[in-house]
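FAQ: What does the model actually see?

It sees only this:
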Amino acid sequence: MTEPPTMIKAHQPDLMVTNARQGELLRSALLSAGVVGCAVLLGATIARGHIYLAVAGGLAAVVPVVVTVKALGPKALRWWVVAGVIAYPFLRYPSRHSQLTFDRVWILGLGGAMCASAAPAIRRSPASRRVAVWIIALAAVLLLRGLTTPVSRNYAIGIALDAGVLPAILFFAARRTVVDQKSWERLLSSLALAGAMLGLVAVAERLLHFQLATLSGGSATPAADVGARVSGPYSTDDALAVSLLMCLAATILWIQLEARVRWRIGALVVMLELAGITFTFFRGAWIGVLVVIIVGVGLRPRRYARLLGTIAMVGVVAGVLLLRAADSSGLSERINNTQNISGRAATYQQAIELFRLHPVFGVGLGQYSVASLQQLPPSSVQGVSAVAFPHDSYLEAMTEGGLLVAIPLFGLTLAAAMMIREYRLRGRARREDVLTGAMITGAALAYFLMSLEEAVITSSTASNAFFWILLGAVAARSDALAADPPPTQAAVAVPAGTAA
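And it is asked to produce this:
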């Protein structure tokens, strides 16, 4: 039996919407494939080592990359969050010492697309502007110091890109992209999906005994007490730890915004993220998990009992896990290992001494290991010698970039803390802002703690990307609150002729 004409007409709008969505998805996929192709082409061109060929390849690819990313619009940032996790170890040529990798090309395309588009007419808050000024200053001095480093200049420029230029682009892209609550939640869902994939890869590496680090320009990181430490798709395990911590914070917020609908799938994502962080065997990352959960779930304005209850609950769970860890020789030895703490203390002493020798411009980006061996006598604490890397982002900035780099980095840290504090104060009237304020506070504290334990800021793009995306999105919300502050006190109508 055929349907009446009225029913056929009723189905037509739904069919048109479905076709439009499929067409948009296909268009976005083709555009993304174009960026991937340009990234691989650029990497191969740069790897040939001929300056004229590299310049010609760059000029030939930069326009289509920018046009493609611009055509993707707000989806460009969200798609990179997910695609970057998948493509990071594979879309690079050569696999080691590649200068223009997939993630770098995509982010630089984001920067070009923003420059080619008119800036939105939004009045930025003073706190957001301060962060923007400091991050631009940090990117500029890092790039200057990379260009002026005489030894391993390409490597130094890569550090400048990963630590300053690319995080700055991601910050501004997120600040421009997150225009309302819907776009904010879409970004959070992308970060949650990225966290699930990172956790799944980390678990697979642990159980199936394979690694992708060598495909990402790094090497597998051994640990005498636990065996190989997983790094997921990245070149270093600390990059995986920081990325998972940021994704964990975003996932917890994403769940809380619609807990009744999202808690089941969100719980699965959180378990994958926690498993991935566990297998990095970073004690600093384990502490970061406690910070993210306690602050993200327990921190609320003037609700101290909730915070104390969350601390107690997390403490009980952590205590049980520590007791269970005693049954695992690897985890137990890792928890009780204090030798690397003494080694860190010796390393910090050397870093401070190296900074005293080169206080203004440092020894050059990426040159800490060589300079410490050539210019300083051996150092040890309790019989444990210093290692060849500073294991602290701020000390690394001081020793390799001197005050030229250290001052903008400390200024940026302070400006980010002030913006988060101001946002939490302004956002007390709206539930979404209260939850977001708790999330970004936990994420920032975890990122800061990891920066004190490892040189994550200069490690790779992945070590910085997700945090600066989150901070840029919060900056966008801070700008919106500054432009249209919520009422803090209900207006009281006073009848005419009545004394106030």
